[in-house]
Amino acid sequence: MSIRNNYNHTLYASYVGYITQAIINNYAPLLFVTFSGEFGLPLDRMYLLVTVNFGLQLLVDLLGARYVDRIGYRKCVVAAHVFAAAGLAGMALLPMVMPPLTGLLIAIVLYALGGGLLEVLLSPIVEACPHTTHKASAMSLLHSFYCWGHVFVVLVSTAFFVIFGRESWRFLALVWALVPLANALYFSRVPIAQLTEDGASMPIKKLLTMKVFWVFMLLMVCAGASEQGMSQWASAFAEKGLQVDKTLGDLAGPCMFALLMGLARLLYARFGARLRLKMVMAASGCLCACSYLLAAFAPHPVLGLVGCGLCGLSAGIMWPGTFSLAAARCPTGGTAMFALYALAGHLGCTAGPTLVGLGSGESLSQGMRLGTLFPVLLLVGLLLLGREGEAR
Fold first, then answer.
1. For residues 86-108, b (16+ Cβ closer than 10 Å) or e, as one string?
2. Residue 135 pLDDT level (bands cut at 50, 70, 90)
3. Minimum mean pLDDT range among 15-29, 54-68, 213-227
4. DSSP code of 209?
5. Per mean pLDDT, which range of 14-23, 102-111, 299-308 is the poorest?
6. Could you give the CA distance from residue 149 to residue 142 in angstroms, rounded to a whole number?
7. Band of the pLDDT at 141, cuts 50, 70, 90?
8. Which of 55, 81, 137, 151 could form a disulfide with 269 if both were Cys (CB 3.0 to 4.6 A apart)?
9. What is the model's pLDDT at position 392?
10. What is each CA distance from 306 to 84, 254, 260, 318, in whole angstroms?
11. Which residues constitute the domain of residue 134?
C-alpha cells in the first residue's frame, strides 16, 4: 500500500508533528540562563519569551476554530511545519542582525504560528483516522510523542553543549529546524481524513451554550498550566534555584519531567481501556499539587528534582485525557471544538509559566509554590464535571 493510501503514515507524521511541537516549546527554555548571560537580559524577563510563544499559539487556536476547515487540514499542517522551521532557524540567525531580544521574539512569533496550528490539527487528524479503535488510548499515545520529543531535545542538546559548548547553540537550532522541514514534505503525501462530514459539526454558538463545554475549558487551562509551569522553568529552577550543575540539572530536571510524562501517557495508551479516565485524572491532579510543593519546599536538591519528575508523571494524562473526555461527551464537536480546547490549553501554557516566572522575583521556590494553584483548580473542574464527561 502506498503512502497516499496508508493511514499508518498519517499516524507517523502526526507523531513527528508532536516531536516538532516539543522542539519549539522546549529548546529555548534550556537556554534561558545562556540568553541572560550572552544578551544581558534579566533572568526574570525570560517569562516574556514563554508568554509570547504560548500567547500567540492561543490566538492561532482561536482563528483555527473558524478557518482550518475552510482552508483544509493538509495545507494548514504543512504550513505549520514550515513556520516552525523558519522560527527555529530565525532563533539562530536573527539575534545576530538586530537587537537580540527583538530577534528572539520574531523567531518565537514564527514558530508559535506553527505550534498553534499543530495543536489545532494533530489531535483531530488522529481522531479521524478510520482504523483507530480505543480513541482515548490513541490520543494518549499521540501526545506521548510530545514527551519523547522533549526527552530527545534535552538529551541531544545536553550532549551537544557538553561536546561543543553552550556558545554553539545557534548551530543546533539550525539542525532542529530540519525536523519540521522534513515532516512538512511527509505530510504533503499522507492521507488525511476529515473529523466530521461537511456540515455535520456542531456550530460554535451551540458549543458555547453548553455548560459542560466550559468545564472542559477549565480543565484544559489547568492541564496546560500544570504541565508547562514546571516544564518551562525546570532547567532554570535546577540551575539557579537548586544550585545544580547545568548538565546534571537538565538531565534530572526537564529530562526526567518529560520522560515520566511520556511514560504516563504510554501506560495509559496500553492499559487505558481498563481504567476510568476521570479517576486517573483526579489522582494525577492530587499528585501534581504535591509535586509542586515538594519542588518548592524540598530541603535537599535531590528531592527538588524528584518533585520536577513527579510533576511530569502526574501531568502526563491531563491534556490528552481532557481531549478524550470531551470527544466522548461531544462527538460532533468537530475541528472547532478541538481548536477551542487547544486555545484553553495554550492559555494555561501561557498562564502557568508566567505565574511561576512572576512569582520568582524573590526566589524560584516561591514561583513553584504559586504553580500549585492549577492542579488544585483541575480537581475542582473534575468535581464540576460530575459523571457527564465520563469516557472509557
1. bbbbbbbebbeeeeebebbbbbb
2. low
3. 54-68
4. T
5. 299-308
6. 11
7. confident
8. 137
9. 37
10. 32, 11, 11, 20
11. 3-385
Residues 6 or more apart whose Cβ sits within 8 Å of residue 69: 194, 201, 334, 335, 336
- Classify residue 320: in a domain, yes or no: yes
Unique residue bearing C-alpha cell 463545554: 213
Residues 156-165 have pLDDT tens digits of 998 998 899 8
Residue 160 belongs to a domain: yes
* The pLDDT of residue 389: 43
Residue pair 23/88 in contact (Cβ under 8 Å)? The answer is yes
Instruction: Examine residue 391 and state whether it is found in any structural domain, yes or no.
Output: no
Domain-located, residue 134: yes
- Of the candidates 332, 137, 329, the one whose C-alpha atom is nearest the C-alpha of residue 214 is 329
- For 321-337, what is each residue's pLDDT tens digit? 888 888 778 777 777 78
Segment among 71-85, 152-166, 252-266, 354-368 with least mean pLDDT? 354-368
Percentages helix, strand, coil for the chain, rounded to the nearest 5?
85, 0, 15
Provide the CATH number for the domain around residue 83: 1.20.1250.20
What three-state secondary structure class fits 302? Answer: helix
Range 21-28 average pLDDT: 90
Q: Is 69 helix (H, G, I), strand (E, B) or coil?
A: helix
* Contacting residues for 366 by C-beta, under 8 A, at least 6 apart: 296, 359, 360
Q: What is the dihedral of CA 260, 257, 88, 175, to 10 degrees?
A: -60
Length reported for the chain:
392
Query: Rounded distance, CA 334 to CA 196, Å?
Result: 6
C-alpha–C-alpha distance, residues 320 and 152, integer Å: 20
What is d(CA 185, CA 248) in angstroms, rounded to the nearest whole number?
Answer: 36
| CA separation for the pair 389, 276 (Å, rounded) | 11
Please compute, for residue 132, the number of CA atoms within 13 A of its CA located in the half-sphere on the CB side. Answer: 24
Q: For residues 277-303, give the mean pLDDT.
A: 87
- How many structural domains is the chain composed of? 1
One-letter amino acid for residue 110 of the chain: L
Q: Count CA atoms closer than 13 A to 63's CA, side-chain side.
A: 13
Using a 10 angstrom Cβ sphere, with 0-12 exposed, 13-18 middle and 19 or more buried, the burial of residue 309 is buried
Identify residue 377 by its one-letter amino acid code.
Answer: L
Q: Using CA atoms, how far apart are residues 89 and 172, in angstroms rounded to an integer?
A: 10
